[in-house]
Design a protein that fits this description.
The complex is a heterodimer. Chain A is α/β, with parallel strands linked by helices. Chain A contains eleven helices and ten strands. In chain A, strand 1 and strand 2 form a beta hairpin. In chain A, helix 5 runs parallel beside helix 7. The termini of chain A are far apart. Chain B is α/β, with parallel strands linked by helices. Chain B has one domain: P-loop containing nucleotide triphosphate hydrolases (Rossmann fold, 3-Layer(aba) Sandwich). Classes of the chains: A alpha/beta, B alpha/beta. At the A-B interface, helix 1, helix 8, helix 10 and helix 11 of A face strand 1 and helix 2 of B.
């Protein structure tokens, strides 16, 4: 059986979210969000800033505690896990790409060290292999090999973001959370990253939840789309259906507001 | 292979006073394996709308659209994704690709998505690009900078890479010269010969006469004015 057939045959969702709610006092972060994510699926979450999409992502990843609802990862209740268990999951099965690369990198450690650290966290010990793999991943995100010993503080914002992505993907996680990952990137690098991500999704069955306001990015990357407004999911469905035939007033406004290039 | 029954469609424009515009009612159509059906009707009569509903990027208001065993009108997104990967191909009028990806890989992608080994997928892609007269020196380049006709041919190569049992073709011969038009018509005939069910829009009357077994005028599916 090919990987694809195995994945199609899988009827169990990798992530199952039910009624997830987070409030900040009287204000709503996100309200009653439910969805299933299957292996090899990319889910895009779009909406204007303040719509609750980043709050939702950080609740899903366990960075913030949800007030209500359930999250099951591979059949395990994430919200009932101990902090240690959840951290282990965050190091092995999951990856989180922050909007601001400074939140996801260790700024005082070299680029190679940033990538190698994740490998060591999952048990890699052989220095040559770690460095070789780090070099390979820096190349994939188009960071020149001679920058491997430089610290990220000496990198441009776009390079830092690419380094963060390399650091996150080097351990072959099963589920990647991404918060506006392509926001600060040059369009040429953004295209390279989209291609890289699509390849990983296709070849490794990676699942991705990507928060963005870039509709062109989700059209090329996401299988399914969720549209949020004021903390609520107002519409979800197949990506090209939501973009080409939006049903909710807010989605219609969002789609019709995009400038044509 | 494709069976459309009592299909209807309306658009609700929330930002224009929530106007509801009915655009289709009672549409029905059946396409057998190995058959090609052409949609006709004036511009704006709903040919593309019908085709998009079969593809699944337009939601049906009512009725059913069976493609194989899947009812696109009611299926979950992941069922439609699987249908598009394995069963239903679509050659649209526009090529939408990730920039910077080489043409050869753009064409091979549908096969890679099915788990075909890279070398085999690229070989099939190369064969199609060759037949469609895309010069080999262009294969390592992204098609985003190609001419309209070249992009159209890359799109066709991509749509024919996997032998889908059902195919949607939106003006596949538009903007092609005589030689390339001939190649595309031959590809369509080959697809029919292997049993593909094809739904097409062809403004090119010669092409229509050659590959279509039947024509369906979508004007018949226009809702009657209420008043």
């Amino acid at each position: 059986m090919t990987l694809m057939e195995k994945m199609t045959a899988t009827t169990q969702p990798l992530l199952k979210v039910d009624g997830l709610t987070k409030r900040y006092g009287p204000r709503i972060g996100c309200l009653d969000v439910s969805f299933d994510l299957y292996p090899g699926e990319v889910l895009g979450i779009v909406g204007e800033s303040g719509s609750g999409k980043s709050t939702l992502l950080s609740c899903l990843a366990g960075h913030q505690r949800a007030d209500l609802g359930r999250i099951a990862y591979d059949g395990r209740d994430v919200l009932a896990m101990s902090e240690t268990e959840r951290r282990r999951l965050g190091r092995t099965d999951w990856a989180y790409v922050h909007q601001n690369p400074r939140d996801g990198l260790r700024m005082g450690v070299s680029a190679g060290g940033n990538v190698g650290e994740r490998l060591m966290a999952v048990g890699a010990r052989h220095y040559g292999e770690i460095r070789g793999k780090a070099q390979d991943w820096l190349g994939r995100v188009e960071i020149a090999g001679d920058r491997i010993d430089d610290r990220p503080s000496a990198f441009s914002g776009g390079m830092q973001q690419r380094l963060q992505i390399a650091r996150n993907l080097v351990t072959s996680p099963r589920l990647v959370f991404m918060d506006e990952p392509t926001g600060g990137l040059d369009v040429s690098v953004q295209a390279r990253l989209l291609d890289l991500l699509r390849g990983l999704v296709r070849d490794l069955g990676l699942s991705v939840i990507i928060v963005t306001h870039d509709l062109a990015v989700v059209r090329l990357l996401a299988h399914r789309l969720m549209v949020m407004k004021s903390g609520r999911v107002v519409e979800q469905g197949l990506t090209d259906q939501v973009l080409d035939d939006p049903q909710h007033a807010y989605t219609q406004l969002l789609v019709s507001s995009v400038l044509q290039v | 292979m494709i069976r459309i029954e009592n299909l209807s469609k309306s658009f609700t424009l929330h930002n224009q006073g929530s106007a509801v515009i009915p655009v289709m009612a009672g549409a029905h159509l059946t396409i057998q394996p190995g058959e090609c059906v052409g949609l006709t009707g004036q511009s704006g009569s709903g040919k593309s709308t019908l085709m998009r509903m079969v593809w699944g990027n337009y939601l049906a208001a009512g009725g059913s659209i069976m493609v194989g065993d899947t009812d696109v009108a009611k299926a979950e997104p992941r069922q439609i994704i699987a249908l598009r990967r394995e069963t239903l191909g679509y050659v649209s009028q526009f090529l939408r690709v990730v920039p910077r990806v080489p043409t050869l890989d753009v064409v091979a992608e549908p096969l890679l998505a099915l788990g075909t080994p890279v070398a085999e997928a690229r070989e099939r892609a190369a064969d199609l690009l060759q037949r469609l007269n895309i010069p080999e020196r262009l294969w390592p380049l992204s098609p985003t900078t190609f001419s309209g006709g070249e992009q159209q041919r890359v799109n066709i190569a991509r749509g024919f890479a996997h032998p889908y049992p059902a195919l949607l073709l939106d003006e596949p011969t538009a903007s092609l010269d005589a030689a390339n038009r001939e190649v595309v018509l031959t590809l369509i005939e080959e697809a029919k010969a292997r049993g593909a069910a094809i739904l097409g829009i062809f403004h090119d009357e010669g092409a229509r006469a050659r590959v279509c077994d039947r024509l369906v005028d979508v004007t018949g599916f226009t809702p009657k004015a209420a008043a």
